[in-house]
Amino acid sequence: MPETKTPIERVSIVVSKGSLEGVYPALIMANGARMEGIEATLFFTFFGLDAIIDKRLDHLKVATVGNPAMHMPTLVGALPGMSAFATSMMKKEMEKLDIPPVREFLTMVHDAGCEIFACKASVDMFHLKRGDFCPEVDEVISVGQFYEKSAGAEIIFT
Question: Which domains are present in the chain?
Answer without folding.
Answer: 10-157 (3.40.1260.10)
